[in-house]
Amino acid sequence: MYEGLSSGARGDAAESALARNGLGIYARHPLFRTVGVDKTFYRPAGRAEFERLAAQVPGDFRFLVKMWRGVVERDPIGASAGAAAFLDARVAEVECVRPAIEGLGDKAGPLLFQFTPMRLHGAREEREFLARLGAFLRALPKGPLYAVEVRNRTLVGPELGELLAACGAIPCLTVHPTMPDPEAQSRELALDPSRPLVMRWMLRANHRYGEAKDLYAPFDRLVEPDDASRDGLARLARAALGAGLGVWIVVNNKAEGSSPRSVERLAQRIVEG
């Protein structure tokens, strides 16, 4: 339940050493049973890179992998494919999905398609996007757990929830300034109570990303505890765990100031509840 390995670590180890060996150390912690692989959003990774990651963690560890921005952004910055790859299932399969599932094997968790805020002018364009999203998801290889995170509030509703369920995918609930709180997202999406739960605790409502980074560095303490988000995430997690479902929670340093400490308090809240 922690995104960003070196940013939350302390001690005399250099960042280069953490990049090489930090994952194995991280995975020994009983609360850290997953990690968000974020760099794959900026460039696709090959099978060998995922195999290297999988070799560093125990058998019960699972990776949440963000899919390449080229397939979820209409004009991704610095992506040579440009808008041509947007919602192209073949590109997603070859460049993102198969390398991840073949390299990670049983250690592959949710494959996340995160859509940054889009300019959708009115209900017609929203319906067109949802239709393209549905066709995209149906064309992907069967088997992996696909999660979809949107950052347009107007897309959060039963239509998106029903579409994802019909395609065998699940929504990723997120704590982010552009979105309602995760419990509201769960209600508005009419979340399927029989499916696994994926949530990301990213950024509190009163800061931009850069502001939070400057304010919270060096990420060794909780600068601004967000009790409301913690309680909401804990309630959702308890319900899913009580139903015997898988739960993934990824926590960013920009959520409260220190993702490891946020994870510790969140775990306590889940148990205490």
What does this structure look like?
This protein is of the alpha/beta class and 273 residues long. It has one domain: Protein of unknown function UPF0759 (TIM Barrel, Alpha-Beta Barrel). It has nine helices and seven strands; from the N terminus they run H-E-H-E-H-E-H-E-H-E-H-E-H-H-E-H. The protein has helices at 15-26, 47-54, 89-104, 122-139, 158-166, 182-188, 209-216, 227-242, 259-272; strands at residues 34-37, 62-66, 108-115, 146-150, 170-175, 197-201, 247-251. The protein has a seven-stranded parallel sheet. Strand 1, helix 2 and strand 2 form a beta-alpha-beta unit. The longest helix has 18 residues, at 122-139. The chain starts with 14 loop residues before the first helix and ends with a helix.
Under the CATH scheme, the architecture is Alpha-Beta Barrel
Biggest sheet descriptor: 7 strands, parallel
Shape: globular
Compute the gyration radius: what is it?
18 Å
Contiguous runs where pLDDT drops below 50 for at least 5 residues: 1-10, 76-82
According to CATH, what is the topology?
TIM Barrel
How many E-type strands?
7
The SS-based structural class is alpha/beta
Number of helical elements: 9
> Separation of termini?
18 Å
How are strands sequenced across the largest beta sheet? 1-2-3-4-5-6-7
* % residues in beta strands: 5-15%
Determine and state the CATH class: Alpha Beta
CATH homologous superfamily assignment:
Protein of unknown function UPF0759
Number of domains: 1
